[in-house]
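User: Okay, second chain of the day. Same drill as before: sequence in, structure tokens out.
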Amino acid sequence: MSHRPERLAEAIKKEIADLIRTEIKDPRVGFVTITGVEVTRDLSYAKIFVSVMGSDDQRKETMAVLQKAAGYMRSEVGRRIKVRHVPELMFKLDTSLDHGTRIMELLQEVNKREENSTNE
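Assistant: Same drill. Structure tokens below.
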């Protein structure tokens, strides 16, 4: 079994993060974190999972800008990591951090209620 998809995914993750930080100057792009990259076994597609801080509208705008810039980023990734065929880039919104934050808020709320009920 080849580890090439995993190695390519890590290289793509590093380069896309750098491109977003340095090259994508669109003001509609909010605070973006690359949470993961999955490359298909045949190396033809790469799903790039991103977490975006902000409102739903800001997230939608950021995702639209990233998807529109996917062709440019694909060519830049190909130039930087020197592969014969660069996978097609698809950006997916990763909401797992939101779920984790919500769970933490709920746990804190439960803890406060328990403290209040034991103090009475």
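Helices lie at 4-22, 56-68, 70-81, 96-119.

User: Thanks, on to the next one.
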